[in-house]
Amino acid sequence: MSGRIDVSKTYKLYVGGAFPRSESGRTYTPAGAPGVNVCRASRKDLRDAVVAARGAFGGWARRDAYNRGQILYRLAEMLETRKAALAAELVAGGSVADHAEALREVEATVDLCVWHAGLADKLNPLLGSQTDASGPFFVFSTVEPTGVIGVVAPERPALLGLCALLLPVLVSGNVAIALCSESSPLAGLALGEVCASSDVPAGVVALLSGHRAELLAELAKHRAIDGLLLAAGDAAADAEAARLAADSVKRVRRCTLSAAGYAEPAAVRRLDWVEPFVEVKTLWHPVSAR
Amino acid sequence: MSRSGFDVPPVDAVALETRAAELATRSIKRDAKRRGLELVIAMTDLTTLEGQDTPGKVRAMCRKARQPFAAAPPVAAVCVYPDLVAEAVGALRGTRVAVAAVATHFPSGRAPRALRLADVRHAVGEGATEIDMVIDRGAFLAGRDGEVFDDIRAVKEACGAAHLKVILETGELRTYDNVRRACRIAMLAGADFVKTSTGKVAPAATRPVVLLMLEAVRDFYLETGRRVGVKAAGGIREAKDALRYLVLVNETCGDGWLTPDAFRFGASSLLDDVLMQWRRLATGTYQRPEDFSRD
User: Residue B101's domain is classified under what CATH number?
Assistant: First the structure.
């Protein structure tokens, strides 16, 4: 007997700033990583995440956009220092060919995070407006966050795809409950460790792993979730989710990410994924005497 | 050591807390949960006791008390300050929802007895059918048990036909032994209910304290044949927690006590959570708190 025993990481959920196992006690083996067990989140885990998210929403939404940008930049810094570990997790998760490809994906994720950090205090210029009025008024339209948004990551790219949908939701002040790639959730779950060490307040991000077919309907039905940003999956299941979401008047945005497209930054720097989850508030303000 | 003739056996604190914790682990699902939640609603004294209360708020609360949500049952009573009793009585005329008033200079009870009794008579005169009084904790903690007893006696007389709930304010009584002795004094003096708290002091209702009070009323029933109810008030905000209290009632006093005549919850925000869970069971969908009115 020689050498030390490996200490391997238990991949757990990220809910309310903590790392719980699924309350159901269930696990599953992701298709991309045979030999690894990860938590299989239940509808109660989702409910707990919603409670934590609603508690965190007010504080996150009230922060200055500039401060949210600072925090997202901090997230990028933490991602950068964990590049090697995240790349190894992408490889272990089986969603990339080799370490070099994994590293490119992580770097693209860091760059995307920096882009969103810069975007945070430019949303009002980009999505708001000043409109002419027939009368002595200024008319301003400003944007405010919608609330709790469910995010369903694509199967691949496992980390960049998750962040490409998560960041547009967070940048405007929403809170998010994200379902990681079902077949390769390891890097997505490890994002929780990055969030926990980067000033992102507890509850603002929840990361769940589990069966998309099981959790998508629950995300759609839960009345306290205000929107869904959904990487396209099975068309019939997505349509059913949209139908279920209609009962609580959720805004649903379904989008397609190409697995190879991450080499092209513009493919993931998408203001049109930010725009569905803001509310426009319009103010009339009297013009002073001229 | 006999001080006052209100001696009670000492309470085993460890055993009490262990039993309360064990009984909290029961899993109540589906149909049992639905019926439990409906029972919680029917046992609720919907309460607003704030300095900023207005007649409008009381009217809104009374509407909610009559019909909390769709086909949910009405609550047991609304509980208000004496000056708003008339408003509540008007809003609840023709219903079975009772009007309870906190009297005796709630929440401190720091006024001469004559004034406290006048407070009770005023509330009863306005139409309150239930009176929630506070005991004189100063006298109780100083060991003047006889004075506390006489106070409750006098309030009971002033109540006339109105039901009397005696608030022990267990958060200020310091020990379980004190809670048990205060229970005994209240029951002997004629209380119809013993109630944990005003809601103005933390801790308010806790499961060990309510378990202790349930044991006290059960023993009193076995001794005298008179059933005194228990009201858990303050700090109970979640449906899950409320169901745990029902388990305590059932396991301590039997299912004959699972009625609004023998057990009540004093609460305001609890009702919304219960309604959310009740609606979740009916629809299979987790609910949104904003869909339920706060007051």
Answer: 3.20.20.70
Does residue B48 sit within a domain?
yes
Number of domains in chain B: 1
Q: What is the pLDDT of residues B39-83, one digit of tens each?
A: 999 999 999 999 999 999 999 999 999 999 988 999 999 999 999
**DSSP letters of B91-132?**
HTTTSS-EEEEE-SSTTT--S-HHHHHHHHHHHHHHT-SEEE
CB B182 within 8 A of CB B151: no
Distance CA A80, CA A78 (A): 5
ipTM of the complex model = 0.82
pLDDT reported for residue B5: 72
Residue B38 above 90 pLDDT? yes
Place of tokens 């056996």: B9
Q: What is the tens place of the pLDDT at every residue in A172-197? A: 999 999 999 999 999 999 999 999 99
Tell me which of A177, A223, A226, A243 to substitute to probe the interface with B (most B C-beta atoms closer than 10 Å). Answer: A223
- Tell me: pLDDT of A246 over 80: yes
Asked if the structure places residue A168 within a domain, the reply is yes
- Cβ contact A248–B288 (<8 Å): yes
Question: How many residue pairs from chains A and B have C-beta atoms closer than 8 A?
Answer: 21
Q: B-chain residues within 8 Å CB-CB of A54? A: 289
Determine contact, residues A279/A128, Cβ cutoff 8 Å.
Answer: no
Cβ atoms < 10 Å from Cβ of A65: 17
Q: Would you say B232 and B168 are in contact if contact means Cβ atoms under 8 Å apart?
A: no
CA angle, residues A144, A145, A146, in degrees to nearest 5: 120
Q: CB–CB of B285 and A222 under 8 A?
A: yes
Q: What is the mean pLDDT of residues B184-188?
A: 97
Nearest to B285 among A50, A54, A223 (CB): A223
Contact (Cβ atoms closer than 8 angstroms) between residue B133 and residue B103: yes
Task: Say if A4 falls within a structural domain.
Answer: no
Domain that holds residue B264: 13-282
* Domain presence at residue A92: yes
Instruction: Let me know if residue B289 belongs to a domain.
Output: no
Q: Do A223 and B284 touch (CB under 8 A)?
A: no
H/E element, A206: strand A205-208
Read out DSSP for B214-274?
HHHHHHHHHHHS---EEEEESS---HHHHHHHHHHHHHHH-GGG-STTTEEEEESHHHHHH
Is residue B138 domain-resident?
yes
**Which domain CATH number covers A47?**
3.40.605.10
- CA B293 to chain A, closest CA, distance in angstroms equals 15
What is the count of structural domains for chain A? 1
Nearest chain B Cα distance for residue A145, angstroms: 17
Q: Which residues of B are catalytic?
A: 132, 195, 231
